[in-house]
Amino acid sequence: MAIETLLIVAGVLVVGSVLISKASERFGVPAMLIFLGVGMLAGSEGLGGIEFDNPKLAQAAGTVALAYILFAGGLETEWSMVRPVLASGMVLSTVGVAISAGLVGGFVALVLGFSWKEGLLLGSIIASTDAAAVFSVLKSKSVRLKGRLRPLLELESGSNDPMAVFLTVGMIGLIVASDKSAWGLIPKFFLQMGVGAGLGLGFGFLMRTLLNRAALGYEGLYPVLSLALVVLTYGVTTVVGGNGFLGVYVAGVFLGNSNFIHKRSLGRFHDGIAWLMQIGMFLTLGLLVFPSHVFEVMGAGLAVAAFLMLVARPVSVFVGMANSRFSKPEKVLVSWVGLRGAVPIVLATFPLLAGLPKSEMIFNIVFFVVLTSALVQGVSIPWVAKRLGLEAPAEEPRRAPLRLGPGVGSQTRLEDFILPYGSPKVGKTLVSLNMPKDSLIALIGRGERFVVPDGSTPLESGDVLWVLVSDTSLPKVRDILTESMSAQSP
After folding, report:
1. Cα(397)–Cα(78) distance, integer angstroms
2. Which of 486, 465, 468 is nearest to 419 (CA)?
3. First CA to last CA across the chain, in angstroms?
């Protein structure tokens, strides 16, 4: 295919995916389903007739895309919000993933006639969840979850991919080298996760330092620098024996909770890059699959999907959160929100490249499970949240008619907060809030108007508060203004 033709095809597919994704907002289906569908339609068995059967290229593209997606997810993770649910999130993203993999592996071995190693491989591949799929559904349906459910789901979904990658690669190694012992995976796990987390923190510090001190002559070079640092973080961490995906996620979390130059513009830039990576990755995976082969495993795929959604995921959640203060309805919702996304499909290419006997069947089953999860769980999340009494109407913050561009060394930022309905702060004056001295409520959005407040201004339900605050006082300000949410959390 000539380069001009290739560019036309790529442009048409991306533009079409973006425009068609509006359907996800209307019908409440995950955007990934739209992108996969476009890829399948453009594939060799679809209307486009594009021949693509290159698992190695698909895996490489998926690896790069996941690195940028995880980094962008880390940038958006607020440490002050996830810290209270850190223990539960970490248990779900490690022990919970292992439990899901083990249960699905045993089910597949008993029901589908796989060996126990092949069953555990399939279970490991589909063990991780997808945060982007979950929150695209919630946003499209204007659903906001109560308490600490959203930060828990963000933390789990953003941090459980490394565990799934580790288990998948480990099981492939055990299948290829049958003389190896599974016990050897335990020290390897701690080495990979420890090195990944450590280098992630190191590279996060390096990113912040370079961005603040580079003093580049052109603002457009800062996004370029950050892009290069992301792939550098993944590459170095992987080469020295760490988990590269964990490394880029931790680096993103560190950087996102630090103050650095052009923070807002770089955040928007990486959000756009993450969307581009998602579209490109799902289109590539959609092109790779042969729909006729997927339908051949429909029976097995339905069985695995049902077991995963109704047994493996709930058991892993209830066991992993046994000692948490989350209520039973909250655990039920976390169990149901375990959507599968891009990572399982990317991981399903690993057995194909390793040349394992049932690799094609595994790939097709995984693809079918992801589609089923997106259709069944994705569409029903708002309804389930409402039935469990865990949803609240989402209110989009209004954009303030002022901006604060952080400079090098600046320790002040502009943050917006919504005063929840039913908050104990409603009716109180600003002076009674006892805000830190280095913070200032500069503007209040109330209905269709803006209010320039003073100390005697009373607060009303649904107020949007724009606060000038230092980095050191931000956690205290957040606690003051979101007190009612904290009181509802486990």
Report:
1. 17
2. 465
3. 57
DSSP 8-class letter at 258: S
DSSP single-letter state for residue 160: S
Q: Quick one: which of 413, 470, 488 has its CA closest to 147?
A: 488
Q: What is the CATH number of domain 412-488?
A: 3.30.70.1450
3-state secondary structure of 464: strand
Task: Give percent above pLDDT 90 in the chain.
Answer: 33
What is the residue extent of each domain of the chain?
Answer: 3-393, 412-488
> Edge-to-edge strands of the sheet including 449-451?
412-418, 464-470, 439-446, 449-451
Q: What is the pTM of this model?
A: 0.78
Taking CA atoms, 267 is separated from 226, 227, 263, in Å, by 10, 12, 6
Q: Contact, 422 vs 482, CB < 8 A?
A: no
- Quickly state the pLDDT bin for 419 (edges 50, 70, 90): confident
Residue 344 reports pLDDT greater than 60: yes
Average pLDDT across the chain, whole number? 84
Residue 68 burial (C-beta neighbours within 10 Å; 0-12, 13-18, 19+): buried
Which pLDDT belongs to residue 486?
Answer: 39
Which ranges of 219-358 does DSSP label H, i.e. alpha helix? Answer: 221-239, 244-256, 263-288, 291-296, 298-307, 313-320, 328-336, 342-347, 349-354
The string of pLDDT tens digits covering residues 196-226 is 999 999 999 999 999 988 888 888 899 999 9
b/e map 251-265, b = 16+ CB within 10 Å: bbbbbbbbbbbbbee
The CATH code that applies to domain 3-393 is 1.20.1530.20
Give the confidence band of 293 by pLDDT, cuts at 50, 70, 90. confident
In tens, the pLDDT along 350-374 reads 999 988 988 999 999 999 999 898 8
Supply the DSSP symbol for 397.
P
* Residue 49 exposed, middle or buried by CB count within 10 Å (0-12, 13-18, 19+): exposed
Contacts of 12 (CB under 8 A, 6+ apart): none
**Is residue 344 within 8 Å of residue 289, measured between CB atoms?**
no
Q: Three-state SS for 445? A: strand
Report d(CA 409, CA 258) in Å as an integer.
Answer: 11
